């Protein structure tokens, strides 16, 4: 939806939950078409392209909004940080606080579904800009994200994968997995197909922001003996200019 945002819908055939509705209209249209009733709205962070549709959906279905503990989203019914006690559509849900892109950013992990909704923290092939945190805080949040099982599917908030992987080839030009993934992603994009979700395993192998320990990457940046945080900060700086 919008230019390059993703909202995600989970359902059990009757009830549905939506993650990051930046716009209510396409969500309402989809739910109407497949005859689902909305039971939960999830929001990862306060940016309008992730939550602008929440109030209208809440009004239409009378369902609760679960999201960050932040005055900038006053209509949130259940404000969450790190929390493991939820059950949604009979599936257990673990909320993780992942500050960095914004200070109150949260992500939603469904361990039994092996799915994680990462908003603007972890992207496929990249990560969000650091708008409110520090590189150290953001890196810590990314490490937390990838602490889940390797086969977990990564559902992020934007279709940025191709550009992210193009950047990855500049900092790890000998990483064959990056080039293969870029080719796969180009194939999908040419056919107007989504490149999301990926998996945690794929991200570990190809996402430069998760690879601050890679000897090739460190050599390319001339930072062989730097700390992981310094390598991460340099990567983020370069990507911001890319
Ligand atoms: Zn954002």
What does the model show?
With 242 residues, this protein is an alpha/beta fold. The chain contains nine helices and 13 strands. It has helices at residues 24-34, 48-51, 54-61, 135-145, 161-171, 176-190, 200-206, 215-221, 228-241; strands at residues 8-11, 15-19, 37-42, 65-68, 78-80, 83-88, 91-97, 106-110, 115-119, 122-123, 126-127, 153-156, 198-199. The strands form three sheets. It has a six-stranded mixed beta sheet. A five-stranded mixed beta sheet has the order 1-2-3-4-5. Helix 5 (161-171) packs antiparallel against helix 6 (176-190). The longest helix is centred in the C-terminal third of the chain and has 15 residues, at 176-190. Zinc ion is lined by residues 45, 47, 101, 120. Zinc ion binds at residues 45, 47, 101, 120.
The proportion of residues forming helix, as a percent range, comes to: 25-40%
User: What are the low-pLDDT stretches, counting only 5+ consecutive residues below 50?
Assistant: none
The fraction of residues assigned to DSSP E strands is: 15-25%
The end-to-end distance, rounded to whole angstroms, is 24 Å
Bound compounds: zinc ion
Give, in order, the helices and strands.
EEHEHHEEEEEEEEHEHHEHHH
- Taking Cα atoms only, what radius of gyration do you get, to the nearest Å? 18 Å
User: What is the averaged pLDDT score?
Assistant: 97
Number of strands: 13
Shape: globular
Class by alpha and beta content: alpha/beta
Number of helices: 9
Main sheet?
6 strands, mixed
Major sheet strand order = 6-7-8-9-12-13
